[in-house]
Structure of VOC family protein:
Amino acid sequence: MSFSPITHLRHVDIAVPEYDKQVAFYGNNWGLTDVGGESNLTYFAAEGSPEQYIVRVRRADEKRLDLVSFGAADPKSVDQLADRLAGANVTLISEPDVLQTPGGGYGFRFFDLEGRVLEVSADVETRTHRKIEEREAIPVRLSHVVLNSPEPEKMLAWYVKHLGFRLSDTLVHPHMGGLMWFLRCGPQHHSMAIARCPHTALNHVSFEMRGLDEYMRGSGRLIRAEVPKIWGPGRHRAGDNTFTYFHDPNGNTMEYTTELELLDEDTWHPSLYDTSEPETSDEWGTADSMNEWISKQMFNDPDKGLFQAPPA
């Protein structure tokens, strides 16, 4: 098996101009727990997750994806990855060292092929968490992140080569070719995906709910609160997970999901799913059919923070 240092997705950090509205959205609407921070910086945890935080929000003049953080098995894996990346002329933002973020740990940051900031860390102290109870409609943990790319095939090759991700499935269109590639770093069908888009941007961040009932209750709560809904509720074919997509106060797309498929690493073979078949987008048939308007809502604004390390 190829070198696979990544174990899981830790957190996704964003910068936004409407900072106060974003903080209120995550705490009051989305169901995350404010675990502190500092001036113009707030960390949010999920009650069911051992991660210190799963989202960080920073105040900024322009919206951007600050970084995506992944876990590694141990400090040795972190050092090995840093050496491999440096040897492949990948630009390191920092060398492996003790992290100064909640929970500490040992890690480093670097740019991906298109200039996003990635972080890989190990030995981060776990947070005291709890079992999410029946009918408790708040996120259990972070599920996955999807990134928009104008050259997704190159991005796919980069993440497979340098970070050891494996391709699970691909969405294709008869006339447009590949549209989305689902990548895994463990048994979960995908921890990240790459979507074809005219520009580099964040597509969406997804949060795992306890089960179907909690997923529907959470989706309904947001709909009743008039949080802008883009698409759903429904169930995707690739990954077999449920979906309801909403816009946050800064126009980023956030998803509630549950029941994401777990794969047998030794027997799984990637499939091509035709998006011209309505069941590919929504097996249930309960959501609106995928259309150009829905796609554009997930294009997001072009990321203006590429190849720029965030100040925190």
